[in-house]
User: Which sequence fits this backbone?
């Protein structure tokens, strides 16, 4: 018959009984911890508050024991109160660890300050005295261990003014130290209530579960430890056993005795119950597979939810069924290795599918970078599991249609991985979506180029709203996934096998863009936009510093590469794209800067990035079309700001177009501009400014040196050289102004 009887326990008896067997009134007693208890959870602050409550005589609730008798010893199993019991034991074993200066009375501290504070900053000296006293007391094992002479010597070394004041110092602190000792001795004799239960032992898990429904509850996974069946079965996986042993070792230390636990026997027999198996399996897969490495930093005795959820997703249709995962484990308990093998096989299948996105060298500083949530990866794994294995069969036979499903999943999984990350599909409702994907055959449905294009466009458009001035966002997981998708097909096998590492670089570099925004007094620009990002080999990137590809003339030779390689393989840019970064901006030029950066550079490169992204996914896309250069219709725009802030290539094209349309060029001008020496001397051009359209616009190396669209001057068509550099501005602008009659 179940009974609950109240008892009063002295704190010192609780401490001693937790440490081992004790005798009270001729009765042998000890306190043990049940296997289903969770570990110690209280923080130092919580423990301090609890001890303070005990000291002040505040109510702290009762302990709950389950009492049995083993070999004439009354065994009290601590069902509820582990945190309080462990704090009591910790305090009584080493009370000085809980000391802080507030435990010394204000009057005593003022006496001490009166002896040591002399001139200077009094508050600093008081703080030093508090620190010395606190450090000394915390160095003691108990308050009985204090030595007044040693404490005086410690203070004398810091405060020479105490020389010859041994008695005064003793009067200031002795009574307080004795009071602390007496308070400790009094506290150890305090009695607290306990309820002793003597009913059926099989009801303990239910009692434990009900108790922990209130207050600070256990997680549902910790409750499983108490509510799931305790029947054990043998397993082969020694690593799972070791994770179970680590859980119990955190409780079964020198502080407590864990009821029914024999670590050597468990290790040899490799027998576990359903909860222990799920607990160890979770730790096992999250530490073995980087794609499942979630919650790996939690304590050894805390249940990792991933394994529980994954087993549930592989077999059940809703998260609510996770409480019954033990039924699945029990079902396969006679051949648990088969279940393990099937789940691990599914994990490896998914890992292989998404590996191209994860393995990119830019993410290999220390370990692979994962971009997914736990729900996304578990959805993919459980989907593969259910498509490959017959979950109704106890031997997990392979489904007859697996070959067809396998081929489709190999095509689709990595695409869904990319698509869902860009769409932030797994941002909420994770467990529900796992089961929906399984029931709807989601990953067997092909994604379209329109879906990917819309996902990219939505993400790109959202980034345009950023107003970055001083703080520029780091590349996001979405940025990495898009870039990895693009460069995956552009990098050769040799690139992947090489020792090179890659950095994500801002093409229009952060430092320069922030400088331009500050100089122009602007409200910020989307510097971190995906269209401004590319991968660069680590050396090439870091050797050029804050300069862009075209501003640094030394790093290319150091890196052993060419600008053509950078443009073709990494940046997908040409020199005119970044000419706007060579201009000297002033206050009031922000609208011009924004036009160049957002409306031209980002807009044009975004089309390129989008196209390459879709092509890497296996979709054809229309060629990107560069934004047309607007013709200048009136000389009224040819003011000083125009000459200063217009990119040099555009300035030449626009002004020459205007001059030709309006008859400003004479035949002599044309003859001069076709002359190489004149072009170099008067305008700084390395090639003749004008070239007859029937002549070859390429140099001896086959490089195009002229704009492809011709201009018409006095009834004849000519190519205009494209070889313009910022330093040519000092010659070009005066020449243009002279033609327009502005000087």
Assistant:
């Amino acid at each position: 018959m179940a009974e609950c009887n109240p008892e009063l326990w002295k704190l010192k008896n609780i401490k001693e009984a937790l440490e081992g067997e004790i005798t009270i009134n001729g009765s042998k007693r000890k306190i043990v911890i049940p296997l289903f208890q969770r570990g110690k959870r209280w923080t130092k602050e919580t423990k301090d508050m609890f001890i303070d409550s005990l000291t002040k005589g505040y109510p702290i609730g009762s302990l709950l024991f389950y009492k049995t008798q083993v070999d004439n010893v009354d065994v009290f199993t601590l069902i509820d109160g582990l945190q309080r019991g462990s704090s009591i034991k910790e305090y009584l074993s080493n009370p000085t660890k809980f000391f802080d200066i507030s435990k010394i009375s204000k009057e005593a501290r003022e006496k001490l300050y009166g002896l040591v504070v002399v001139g200077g900053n009094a508050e600093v000296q008081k703080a030093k005295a508090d620190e010395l006293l606190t450090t000394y007391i915390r160095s003691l094992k108990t308050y009985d261990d204090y030595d007044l002479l040693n404490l005086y010597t410690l203070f004398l070394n810091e405060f020479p003014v105490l020389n010859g004041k041994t008695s005064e110092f003793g009067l200031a602190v002795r009574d307080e130290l004795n009071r602390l000792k007496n308070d400790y001795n009094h506290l150890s004799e305090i009695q607290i209530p306990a309820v002793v239960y003597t009913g059926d032992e099989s009801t303990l898990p239910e009692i434990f579960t009900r108790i922990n429904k209130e207050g600070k509850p256990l997680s549902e996974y910790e409750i499983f430890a108490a509510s799931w069946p305790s029947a054990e079965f043998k397993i082969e996986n020694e690593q799972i056993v070791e994770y179970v042993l680590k859980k119990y070792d955190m409780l079964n230390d020198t502080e407590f005795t864990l009821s029914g636990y024999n670590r050597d026997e468990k290790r040899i027999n490799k027998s576990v119950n359903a909860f222990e198996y799920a607990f160890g399996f979770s730790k096992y897969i999250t530490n073995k597979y980087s794609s499942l490495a979630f919650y790996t930093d939690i304590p050894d005795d805390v249940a990792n939810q991933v394994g529980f959820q994954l087993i549930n997703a592989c077999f059940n249709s809703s998260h609510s069924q996770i409480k019954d995962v033990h039924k699945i484990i029990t079902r396969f308990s006679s051949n648990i290795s088969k279940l393990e093998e099937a789940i691990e096989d599914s994990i490896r299948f998914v890992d292989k599918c998404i590996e191209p996105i994860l393995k990119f060298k830019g993410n290999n500083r220390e370990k692979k970078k994962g971009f997914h949530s736990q729900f996304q990866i578990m959805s993919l794994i459980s989907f593969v599991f259910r498509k490959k294995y017959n979950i109704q069969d106890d031997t997990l036979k392979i489904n007859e249609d697996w070959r067809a499903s396998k081929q489709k999943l190999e095509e689709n999984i990595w695409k869904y991985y990319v698509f869902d990350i860009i769409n932030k599909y797994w941002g909420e409702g994770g467990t529900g979506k796992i089961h929906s994907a399984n029931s709807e055959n989601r990953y067997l449905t092909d994604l379209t180029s329109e879906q990917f294009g819309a996902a990219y466009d939505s993400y790109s458009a959202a980034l345009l709203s950023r107003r970055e001035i001083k703080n520029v966002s780091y590349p996001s997981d979405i940025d990495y996934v898009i870039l990895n998708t693009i460069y995956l097909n552009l990098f050769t096998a040799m690139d992947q096998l090489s020792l090179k590492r890659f950095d994500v670089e801002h093409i229009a570099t952060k430092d320069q863009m922030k400088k331009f925004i500050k100089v122009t007094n602007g409200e910020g620009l989307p510097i971190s936009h995906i269209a401004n990002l590319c991968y660069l080999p680590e050396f090439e990137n870091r050797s050029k510093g804050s300069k862009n590809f075209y501003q640094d003339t030394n790093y290319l030779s150091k890196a052993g590469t060419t600008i053509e390689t950078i443009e073709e393989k990494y940046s997908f840019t040409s020199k005119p794209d970044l000419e706007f970064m060579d201009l000297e901006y002033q206050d009031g030029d922000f609208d011009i800067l924004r036009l160049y950066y957002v409306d031209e550079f980002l807009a044009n490169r975004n089309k390129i990035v989008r196209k390459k992204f879709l092509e890497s996914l296996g979709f054809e896309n229309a060629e990107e079309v560069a934004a047309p250069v607007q013709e200048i219709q009136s000389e009224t725009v040819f003011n000083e700001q125009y000459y200063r802030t217009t990119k040099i290539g555009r300035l030449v094209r626009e002004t020459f177009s205007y001059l030709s349309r309006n008859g400003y060029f004479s035949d002599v001008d044309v003859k001069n501009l076709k002359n190489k020496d004149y072009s170099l001397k008067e305008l700084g051009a390395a090639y003749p400014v004008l070239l007859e359209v029937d002549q070859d616009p390429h140099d001896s190396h086959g490089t195009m040196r002229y704009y492809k669209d011709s201009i018409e001057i006095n009834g004849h068509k000519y190519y205009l050289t494209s070889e313009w550099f910022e330093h040519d501005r000092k010659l070009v602008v005066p020449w243009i102004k002279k033609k327009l009659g502005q000087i």
